[in-house]
Design a protein that fits this description.
- The chain is α+β, with helices and mostly antiparallel strands.
- Helix content is 38%, strand content 15%.
- The chain has a domain at 52-207: 3-Layer(aba) Sandwich (NADH Oxidase).
- The strands form two sheets. A four-stranded antiparallel β-sheet has the order 1-2-6-5.
- The longest helix is centred in the middle third of the chain and has 22 residues, at 82-103.
- The N and C termini lie far apart (43 Å).
């Protein structure tokens, strides 16, 4: 997307100003908080289909996230192909079995007990879509010369947050899944060495009998996550 001969700074007027009153700001913040409280990480999925256009719009929203030097160091691969989803599940479960057999360490495995996870990852096939999020460690100019990307993990993390909220706004649920290692995804999905897979996002509708862990509803109170200096 970058051309070496067009790297100059050119300011334009701010395209949008909300211009809200204090009361409107407070109301807007409360409305968002009420909405985001309804978001849950879900592991039980319906096989109900989701149109590609919905996924595309949510990913367009994710692409608006801020990034280091505006390099936008991310790539999203959306998958509904049953064969590819099956292969991803097989590879992911192979790594998960090693993890739960002791590779993750006793402390980590113990910490996961209240969440109720295990090596079986049926959601990777049940959900209509998987979105694999890649971080682009470097980019290339049109002539093939590499350029460095900045704050890659931070930038992609913000974009992933945008995507999760966009999916929620569309009425969908999601689950972040990070089998380790994930290098198999580069080969399976045809991504170059510059791309590092960061997570698999499972996307769809919750199953009729979907549950969430009770522990997931326990959140730190505001006074534990906020310090204010006035």
């Amino acid at each position: 997307m970058f051309q070496k001969h067009k790297m100059n700074y050119q300011p334009i007027p701010l395209p949008y100003r909300a211009g809200k009153s204090n009361a409107e700001m407070k109301s807007g913040a409360e409305a968002f908080f009420t909405e985001i409280k309804q978001r849950h990480t879900v592991r039980d999925y319906s096989t109900q289909s989701v149109e590609l256009s919905v996924i595309q719009t949510c990913i367009k929203a994710a692409g608006l996230a801020p990034s280091g030097a505006n390099h936008q160091p991310w790539h999203f691969v959306a998958i509904s192909d049953e064969n590819i989803k099956r292969r991803i599940r097989e590879e992911a479960e192979d790594e998960e079995r090693k993890f739960y057999a002791g590779g993750g360490g006793d402390e980590w495995i113990k910490a996961l007990e209240p969440i109720g996870t295990g090596p079986s990852k049926t959601h990777l096939e049940d959900a209509p879509w998987l979105i694999v999020i890649f971080a682009e460690r470097y980019g290339e100019f049109d002539d093939g010369e590499r350029y460095k990307n900045y704050y890659v993990s931070e930038s992609v993390g913000i974009a992933a947050g945008f995507l999760i909220m966009a999916l929620h706004s569309a009425g969908l649920v999601s689950l972040t899944h990070t089998p380790n290692p994930m290098k198999f995804l580069n080969k399976l999905l045809g991504r170059p060495p510059s791309n590092k897979p960061l997570m698999i996002l499972t996307v769809g509708h919750p199953a009729e009998n979907a549950t969430v862990p009770a522990a997931a509803k326990i959140k730190k109170p505001l006074d534990e996550i906020l310090t204010v200096y006035i």
